[in-house]
Amino acid sequence: MLSARRLSRRYGSDDGLVRAVDDVDLDVPAGRAVAVMGPSGCGKSTLLQLLGGLQRPSGGEVWLAGRRIDTMSERALARLRRDSIGFVFQAFHLMDELTAVENVELAALLAGRSPGRARRRAMYLLDRVGLADRARHLPSELSGGQRQRVAIARALTNEPLVVLADEPTGNLDTAATLEVLRLFEELRAAGQTLVVVTHDARIAAVADQVVSMRDGAFADATTFAGDRR
Ligand code: ADP
After folding, report:
1. Domain 2-221 architecture
2. Residue 147 belongs to what H/E stretch?
3. What is the residue with the minimal CA distance to atom 1 of ligand 1?
4. Of 33, 35, 98, 208, which one is least surrounded by beta carbons within 10 A?
5. Which of 11, 19, 90 to mutate to test the pocket of ligand 1 (most atoms within 8 A of CB)?
6. Average pLDDT of the chain?
7. Which residue's CA is the closest to the ligand 1 atom numbered 27?
8. Cα–Cα distance between 53 and 69 in angstroms, integer?
9. What is the CA radius of gyration of the chain?
10. pLDDT range class, residue 177, cuts 50, 70, 90
């Protein structure tokens, strides 16, 4: 489903070169959940941004569902991100002036769905993340855990091929982390392809496969948490 081949991203010039991602190979089969762990600065976020077409690699290839994405035009890439990739960020990145349901339906409207269909889809997803009764609240009226659940609903709006999550519980307390953890378990059980960057071993434990990064590369042979399908 999602593959990286000899993927690299370097920052800076020759004198101060940072190899943020250094010659990485990764395969995420459809329906699998992969967790990426490792110390701060080892390249996890950069890897995720390369996989999601938010950044261009310095070298190597990224493939999603049989299409090479790192060489796509900006326009094609923007459409692909909108229609096929669901992003979840540590800082939620919700639109402050929009209600929960408006945040979730916006992605569907941008993808050309009718307002009625977009609203129905958004309400269905808010119900799925346990927030049907908060649909008309602004993000500022929601807890951190609730905001992240809205962001997860938004990521699912257009039925993405893959969900990419960068430290989704990094800003959350234990109770909220458990709410998000339960959602990821449900996503995995539903067969959603998922890549999650996390420091949290509980989140990583949901994954089918855990990858450890050090200095831009995978530190060990990828360890399978066990084939649970
Ligand atoms: P992680 O997500 O594991 O904390 P990052 O992917 O954010 O790691 O960063 C990997 C390395 O790349 C770090 O050394 C970081 O300082 C560097 N880096 C990340 N983004 C940039 C940037 N835009 N410009 C220069 N260096 C960067």
Report:
1. 3-Layer(aba) Sandwich (3.40)
2. helix 144-156
3. 41
4. 98
5. 11
6. 93
7. 11
8. 7
9. 17
10. very high
